[in-house]
Amino acid sequence: MSSLRECVAHVLGAEAAELPDDEQALREWLAQRGLGLVPVADPAAFSWPGPFLARGEREWTVLFGVPPGPLLAPPDGAVQAAYVIAGHEVRAASSGATTATGTVTAIVLAPAAEAPLRSVERAQAIAGRGLLGDRYADGAGTFSPGGGRGHDLTLVAAEVLEDAGLEPVEARRNLIVRGVDLDALRGRRFRIGAVQCLGQRRCEPCAHLERLTRPGILRALAHRGGLRADILRSGDLCVGDPVEALE
User: Fold this and answer.
1) DSSP 3-state assignment of 31?
2) Average pLDDT, stretch 156-160?
3) At what angle do helices 4-12 and 23-31 cross, to 10 degrees?
4) Beta pairing partners, 202
């Protein structure tokens, strides 16, 4: 287990020795850098598509994802307190144009939540629903009851899966693509063959994915888990289709 200082350093990518050990001094150190510790109202039930600090009975750790899993050691008992590290000033990130054009290398479907996935050469994309034959198109995915946007289609980079040692069917994403900066498609329209989509948010890994694959995958895919998108225009998707930003 770790101290609060070590957990803050882990989230920031800093050396723990650079940070003060006293909590008030640590808060002042963060404030000097435009950051702060935001307390979570219901720590035991909290989840977040990013890292946050959590204290068990005595020790601190870093949790990540929805539902959360440990990036460091698991909490020593029920989570008693939690903080998110946040900036004092939130500025809209510029989404500059990307010239990257990629290719679909695999299409993966599952008929129900936690069911084995299968690769197909072609799938029908249905606007506002998902891929015909996939659990999310039928409202039967693990996270379908939550509703909201970004459940139609999930994409992940082939390069990331190769680095993490995952096969396409293990990633539980619909499309495996190569040569595309998926982060650059957040908030943007793009096309896959004749199908038009809108990138919504990162498809971060979670404890659910780690349970279905192997320990360590959550850490390996943190901030690299892919993209959640809405399907705006229906059509057929095929392996080999180009992926291109439209705006």
Assistant:
1) helix
2) 94
3) 20
4) 227
